[in-house]
Specification:
single chain; alpha/beta; TIM Barrel; 7-stranded parallel β-sheet; two-stranded antiparallel ribbon; 12 helices; 9 strands; globular; binds iron/sulfur cluster
């Protein structure tokens, strides 16, 4: 292991300093159990995580969020269900904590109330793919709602059927003046033809690299992320339950302890139940392709990237990518 200043020239050292001070403490909140879609493969509904009694009293939400802030959370990631169905709860978060809202984009978040809240819109491929998987071409609606919005990007979930066709989706996003983060489907509902084969993942890695080369102002990504998520490997280790950093703290009984996100919780909409991790409670970790968990996996393992300049630069690029997705550093 070498020291950081020996490994980096002044430009990279400045980049390192910029992220080293961020001290991100995120947690995830199911804002509601309801959604205005029912996508095939949705981890929330397929895992039964919606089976809690939703808290409906806004005062309870406000008190809960205040407690979360006191617990040290400085980034609230709002998911669901569809958070925009409960705008008062979203507002309660936004007024108290830096907040990020994941949405399907069908309902527009009013920018007069939420001028700088980061918004991530889910997208599952081309119009045809979306009609099959989500029952609707959501892009046709979400792109009108958010065209040119400087605080919004698409969360494009790539499926095995999309390999070789990613560019056409990226181009549509370029045309509406938004950015995109690429992630991979984990086939939680066992749909025929939607599980990854090794050769598809190999091809996709290079396709993702190519998208970043061609559309660097649109694609928020880096090549080390592409490598990590498509291979499930990092520094010779294999991603899975015994490596995952995104496990709720109170449910994490792994021994020996695993490097993990500090004080991370994922709360259900009853404000009492906690879910196992940042994604499906019933997912087989060995097939998990969750993008945030893979990014966090790299981020919590800095020491392992102190062997060479390239390794440390890779680590910095993944950290920067994560920080950009929440606009903690500029795009
Ligand atoms: S929009 Fe999101 S929460 Fe709603 S069904 Fe689809 S994946 Fe699930
Ligand atoms: S399903 Fe994925 S995110 Fe959840 S514990 Fe397993 S590896 Fe981690």
């Amino acid at each position: 292991m070498k020291t950081i200043s020996l490994l980096l020239d002044s430009e990279w050292y400045d980049r390192y300093r910029r992220i080293a001070n961020l001290n991100i403490r995120s947690s995830i909140y199911d804002v509601t159990n309801r959604c205005n879609l029912r996508c095939r493969g949705c981890f929330f509904f397929s895992s039964g995580e919606n089976h809690v009694k939703e808290e409906t009293n806004i005062k309870q939400w406000e008190a809960f969020i205040d407690k979360e802030r006191k617990r040290g959370v400085n980034l609230a990631i709002l998911i669901g269900g569809e958070p925009t169905l409960c705008m008062d709860r979203v507002e309660a978060f936004y007024k108290r904590l830096p907040s990020y809202c994941a949405t399907n984009g069908l309902i527009k978040i009013p920018r007069d109330k939420f001028p700088d809240m980061m918004v991530g819109i889910s997208l599952w491929g081309s119009s045809e793919d979306e009609k099959i998987l989500r029952g609707k071409d959501t892009f046709a609606i979400s792109s009108k709602n958010y065209e040119g919005d400087p605080y919004t990007y698409y969360l494009y979930t790539i499926t095995p059927k999309q390999v070789g066709k990613v560019e056409s989706v990226v181009k549509r996003i370029v045309d509406v003046g938004l950015k995109v983060h690429l992630q991979l489907l984990s086939n939680d509902e066992g749909m025929e033809g939607f599980s990854w084969r090794p050769e598809e993942l190999r091809d996709l890695r290079f396709e993702m690299d190519e998208m970043l080369n061609q559309y660097p102002r649109t694609v928020i990504s880096c090549k080390y992320y592409h490598e990590t998520i498509t291979t499930g490997k990092m520094m010779g280790r294999t991603f899975g339950w015994h490596e995952c950093p995104s496990v709720t703290e109170s449910l994490d009984n792994r021994q020996p302890p695993v490097k993990r996100l500090i004080h991370f919780y994922r709360w259900a909409a009853d404000l009492k139940t906690v879910h196992r991790c940042c994604t499906s409670a019933t997912r087989d970790c060995s097939i998990c392709k969750d993008g945030a968990a893979h990014m966090s996996w790299v981020m919590v393992n800095k020491r392992d990237h102190l062997n060479s300049t390239r390794d440390l630069q890779n680590w910095i690029e993944v950290y920067e990518m994560f920080a950009k997705l929440y606009r903690l550093i500029p795009w």
